[in-house]
Amino acid sequence: MPLENIRNIVLVLSGKGGVGKSSITTQLALTLSLQGHSVGVLDIDLTGPSIPRFFGIEEAKVRQAPGGWIPVPVHDQQTLPRPLTANTSGNGAASANTDGQEIGALSCMSLGFILANRSDAVIWRGPKKTAMVRQFLTDVLWPPLDFLLIDTPPGTSDEHISLLENLLKQTAAPTSPPNQLAGAVVVTTPQAISISDVKKELNFCRKTGIKVLGVVENMAGFVCPNCSECTNVFSKGGGEVMAREFEVPFLGSVPIDPAFVQLIEEGTRPVYPKGTSVVGREIGTGGGVNGHGDDHERVDLLADKYRDCSLCPLFDAIVGRLVADIRGS
After folding, report:
1. CB–CB of 68/265 below 8 Å?
2. 131 in helix, strand or coil?
3. pTM of this prediction?
4. pLDDT, tens digit only, all 329 positions of the chain
5. Do residues 211 and 183 make contact, with C-beta atoms less than 8 angstroms apart?
6. Annotated binding-site residue? 92
7. Annotated binding residue at 100?
8. Please, which of 57, 105, 181, 305 could form a disulfide with 77 given CB 3.0 to 4.6 Å?
9. Nearest to 322 by CA among 257, 220, 239, 252
10. What is the spatial distance between Cα 85 and Cα 104, in angstroms, rounded to a whole number?
């Protein structure tokens, strides 16, 4: 069974479109990889497959192999050079951690890799969508993975029902790892209209027996690219209130960062004004953590560029809580 190689399966859900599920999935995957885990991303948003775009691998094609499809690699397991860290000896100089940072392999599967033309509209009825989801779960030859993140479409549609039916069937097999279907991360934005729709998703999880690993509040503020001040243009705190109401963990709030948008759209490394600090970590003009981004060897990998993003420390904390919860269950 293709899912036998996977230790933990995590769904990324939301009852509303446009809340940033694919953005959250991408950053969860990058952060898990940066923490040394091997990661796969399965995109079952069939009518809007955006994962290839987020990882900068739109031109890639899926390869056939005996028994199924080989997912598209984003990067292999490797060692990244560590950024320079502040020297604590008091002389003001910077010193490097020469050990390097081990990152796990990352690969993706999406309908976007299969379509003949990227701009083709997917006009499918429910049975065809159901069959495609089933094929993704049975025919993708994943390498051994610590985590498989499944990016889902909004709502509780045919894709969700097919996904859960097949996942519950496969993960209940005697050969599957224990607690393989770890649960779901639910994404919302702070506005009341979004919260209202996402509550339906939480009720969907309750009725289907899917554990909610936590709620992430996306777009909770806007980080000014000039002064780095965060303004709550869409309000803030609604996701945390909803999590308390449903008695599920609140994983954290994530602001809109134009530097992350530029990283995805143009592939440029994030750069911030001098003195920018996130979660107690200074991010300087060179784009590096602790203000020494220009002093470490640059690697042309999305994961390495993402280390210089202001959202990286936030997701480091979110993923830390997520992994601790999964291991403790």
Report:
1. no
2. helix
3. 0.90
4. 578 899 999 999 998 888 999 999 999 999 999 999 999 999 999 988 999 999 999 999 899 999 899 999 999 999 998 764 433 334 444 344 457 899 999 999 999 999 877 777 788 888 899 999 999 999 999 999 999 999 998 888 788 888 999 999 998 888 888 899 999 999 999 988 889 889 999 999 999 999 999 999 999 888 777 776 777 877 778 899 999 999 999 999 999 999 999 999 999 999 888 777 666 666 655 444 434 444 456 788 999 999 999 999 999 999 999 999 999 86
5. yes
6. no
7. no
8. 105
9. 252
10. 22
For helices 238-246 and 192-208, angle between their N-to-C axes, nearest 10 degrees: 30
**Matching residue, tokens 């777009």:** 219
Strands (E), 78-126: 78-80, 84-86, 94-96, 101-103, 106-110
- CA–CA dist 29, 8 (Å, integer): 13
Which residue has 């890639």 as its token pair?
A: 60
Is 320 annotated for ligand binding?
A: no
Amino acid at 241: V
**Is 21 marked as a binding-site residue?**
yes
Asked if residue 224 belongs to a known ligand binding site, the reply is yes
Residue 89 neighbours by CB distance under 10 Å: 8
Q: Does domain 2-87+99-328 have CATH number 3.40.50.300?
A: yes
Residue 177 backbone phi and psi in degrees, to 5: -60, 150
- Flag whether 20 is marked binding: yes
What 8-state DSSP symbol labels residue 12? E
What tokens appear for 210 in the block? 């899917």
- Its sign, for the CA torsion 115, 157, 10, 21, is positive
Q: Cα dist. 104→96, 152, 241 in Å?
A: 22, 23, 34
The rounded distance, in Å, linking the Cα atoms of 68 and 184 is: 26
Find out whether 128 is annotated in a ligand binding site.
no
**Tokens (6 digits) for 144:** 């051994």
Check: CB of residue 104 under 8 Å from CB of residue 37.
yes
